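Quality-control log, excerpt.
Job 1 of 2 completed; input and output follow.
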Amino acid sequence: MEIERKCLNCGEPVRGRSDKKFCSDYCRNYYNNQWRTYSDNYIKKVNNILKKNRKILTDLNPSGKTTVHKNQLLKLGFRFDFCTNIYTTKNGNVYHFCYEQGYLAIENDIFALVKKDLKQN
């Protein structure tokens, strides 16, 4: 007894090879384009947040090293839940980076802003 397979896009019966997932080329293309659009939109949103975080850090830290209050970052729209990498020093300090621009929580909502020297890598 063969189990009837349904098209992943429209739910119609699928006929043909046992690994076939769609009833037609139209359904296959539509399904894949919808999935890709969702995936691409998510990636674009995350990249835009990361770019905005980087710009905020760059604008506040033109010299490569400074301190700012957390409220200043938040007021500009900084998102602390997005970063590209985290670096922990030997003495336990945890730096969060948005590309080459980083920050370290010091105390009393004060953050040290730093710029990674890209020549070292």
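Job 2 of 2 completed; input and output follow.
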Amino acid sequence: MELKVKAAAKINIFLDILGKLDNGYHSLFMVMQSVGLYDELTLTQTASGIKIACNNPLVPIGRDNLVYKAADLFFKKTGIDGGLKVIIDKNIPMRAGLAGGSADAAGVLAGLNAIYDKPLSERKLRALGLEAGSDVPFCLMGGTCLAQNTGGVLSPLVPVENCYIVLAKPNRDVSTAEAYSRADEAYLYHLDCNRMLDCCEKGDFDGICRYAGNVFEQVVEVPERVEIKRIMRENGSSLTQMSGSGPTVFGLFRKKSDAENAAEEIKKICDDVYVTVPVEKGTEIL
């Protein structure tokens, strides 16, 4: 059996680090949003083994790929004796703060669950996803969500108002592990979780933009960020900030023309620039 899955990127409209847990992971408070930038995966059922191929030669295709880890966890958890070949058509930039690897892992879990007639409930599938990576549960759930603790506590929120989103990834990578290490060593100015959550519950777009924030901006240096933000603001963005541990900067725009104008100007300093919209699903089986 063969099927295709679309796996959506995400942005962090709000990200605060509440503390470090005894197990070494971090307790987080995040408002996450799926966006219409997708990797496309082709899953083919095989007799045994897990094989990965990708159109991007920089993507690892062995056991260190989250796709491999997710598929291996699925077969072990369900006890199914089978295998999988995955072809990844990579469109989401790597190491960008957009959860491209987690999206692919979520796509594989959703696809395998469909291939084998849903042996796992949505809740159990998300719990399995958390073992693969902290963003995988959200990438399975998708839409607009509050994500807490290490990413496994998810609560759906009122969908973000229709808007246009510009994604701009500077020509550099950021190590997530290094970003957390810097955050651990810094005195962080924490964000207003209560007011942000209240605005999300009310669907208050202006309030969401007012209280949005990302504490990683306090410790992760991305020289292009200032200029990207300037361009977005001058073109009418309601919000502009970094996603995840970076380096991607996003902007929310009410008008498509404003978003497109900002994107064209930003392309002078960034190769990876996209205009997209919020979407309600993290994965979609085609």
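Post-run check on job 2. The first strand starts at residue 2 and ends at 20.
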